Here is the input.
Amino acid sequence: MTGGLLAGLVALGAVRGAAVGAQDWRTASREPVGLAPDPSAAREPIVQVYGARTWGWRGTFGVHTWIAVKAADADAYTVYEVIGWKLRWSDSALAVTQRAPDARWYGNAPELLADLRGEPAAQLIPRIERAVGDYPHAREYSAWPGPNSNTFTAWVTRAVPELRVDLPPTAIGKDYLANRVVDSAPSGRGLLFSLGGLLGFTASPVEGLEMNVLGLTFGVNPFDPALKLPLLGRIGPDR
Here is the structure.
């Protein structure tokens, strides 16, 4: 049964990988998809968390995640994310930019994982900024098992549990804890046991139950009904 499931996942991944691998990063779309309010019209504070399939063959297996904030009356969003190739010419993989938070990630449409507005968002923005500044792995990057962009997002969401972010099972690296073995789940609620991001177990009222095997996540969430599978991601009703 397990072997058949894995074989099916691999077959689906191979089909998707052929399409993803055909992308050209130089011409891939970075256009916004309409999930973020226009900052010139929406004057209230906004916090959003996004995830999108990463570029190239890696997109078969995983997503890239990021966090965007906009203070009251700000004319632009500030986006926080970790980008591995920044280390080629910089001493930090952490990118802080002003860009459209709902832009496609090299052609791949993003999914909105959290969206807070008004006073609740205003209270969280300073805490998000502090968590970003405290991220301990800015000068290192490993696509698998971490630390990577999803390790960064999980670090921030763990520090700000009010976001209640359930990162997708394809967010490889979210369970990476470096030299720690036990911590709160990436949502900041519940418990995560992890051995270097390669073997782990999560129990949380936000994520539900997850098992991580070599960075591949299997799980079920009875609180926001969904099945979680490697490659395929979250299967269930809209969040």
In short: The longest helix spans residues 2-21.
